Amino acid sequence: MALVPTWRLRAAFARRLSDMYGTEVPAYTTLLEVAGQINDEVAGRDPDAGRLGSISRVTAERHGAIRVGTPGELRQAAQVFAALGMHPVGFYDLRDGDIGAVPVVSTAFRPTDTDELDRNPFRVFTSLLTASDRRFFDADLESRLTAFLARRRLFPPELLELAEQAEKADGLDEPAAERFLTLAVDAFRLSTEPVDRAWYAELERISAVAADIGGVAATHVNHLTPRVLDIDALYRRMGERGITMIDRIQGPPRWDGPDVLLRQTSFRALAEPRAFREPDGRVTSGALRVRFGEVEARGIALTRAGRARYDALTAETDRRMAEHPDADRGQSARALWQRDFPRTEHQLAVERQAFFTYHPVPDRPRDGHHPPADLAGLLTGGWLTARPIVYEDFLPRSAAGIFHSNLTGEGTRDARRTGTRYDAHRLSAAIDRPVLDPFALYAAQQDRSLRQALGTLGADAALRALDDAPDM
């Protein structure tokens, strides 16, 4: 019997998860409808709309978000995603920002091969509760939280067994694939089990995110995010539909230069009916606000140098807003970007501020000259063309900002205490899989294309210069 290959499992899972989430959160269906309308409009008027991914890819594109409580739960989630051809990429620490109490570290599970990304670029931003961090949890609460989490089971053994089979065989036969997809979607469905009101409230005083992870019996999709080609238009149109959006769009400002990195926004978390178990044992009705509808617009991946420039501009915008709190943040950021950020893709490429794939120009008139030895000369002289590499990852500040904008309160964090040390290496050890460096993935993709293009051109001097260039 023929196997259902990994990428088809991933595409089917993303599609079924989206259908399930639309049933649970009806405003998400409205978000998909508006995003689809805007994408069609942009594609209709802009012949270059597919520059950062084909329209079919953008339309199918989703990223999900889940939250887990222990390294063991994260390890099992990693196994499920491995069956879908998704690997942990990037380390995000949301604990130390200036935005609320968010006691989690995160990674994103996604495809890494460019062909797999083109087929279906589904991603899941996955956060791990840091229960041992004394800035948030004292020893007694950590002990009780750890005991609570140890009693629950997020993923049934059958699902994990099928996930292991799918990873080893790069797919599953039809009956096993259907069973795997059913179990996988069910694992991320909102639980109907009553929530212990007193326990949830105790955790919520620390952090609403902590309560959403450690105060319930199962994990669930926290948000599911479509991609849109004009996020500013979507923000306005959702408001016109009567859906309350968060205060602003997170990430780079809208400006007249290249779109880079990631811009995100969301509608505010909606009150969803939930059953509660009271201290006297009664089950009552209530509501929680934990799930919301996020949407994103993706731009060009930046090198480490480009990212440092982005971070510096963000910090300068923060400084200016602190001095003039009534100023328009978008205008302030836009003025800084127009002054200090590369205004064209050509600039981004020659200054090595962003990642591109490079391609030889086959019909360039040959005048007997050898190709120049520098990238700027090759691009300006028409020897090479540069195609931007789309940013496939996330911004910790933006993630924390959206998390916080949908919380029920500020929570508490004792800055006098020392936090538990976490980094990509510790997270890799916890899940027994390497957490990959996104910069290295983009750089490898760029390097392969550039070497191939220079080899085709016979640009030996440029190849030698490439070997001597510093890492990006």
Automatic annotation (TrEMBL):
Parts forming coiled coils: none
Question: Does Oxidoreductase count among this protein's keywords?
Answer: yes
Q: What class of enzyme is it?
A: oxidoreductase
Region forming the signal peptide: none
Entry keyword set: Dioxygenase, Iron, Oxidoreductase
Co-factor(s): Fe(2+)
Say yes or no: keyword Signal present: no
**Gene3D superfamilies from the UniProt entry:** Uncharacterised protein PF07063, DUF1338
Under the heading InterPro entries, the entry gives: HGLS, YdcJ_bac-like
Q: Describe the family membership recorded for this protein in Swiss-Prot or TrEMBL.
A: Belongs to the 2-oxoadipate dioxygenase/decarboxylase family.
Protein name as it appears in the record:
2-oxoadipate dioxygenase/decarboxylase
Q: Which organism is it from?
A: Streptomyces albospinus
Species classification: Bacteria, Bacillati, Actinomycetota, Actinomycetes, Kitasatosporales
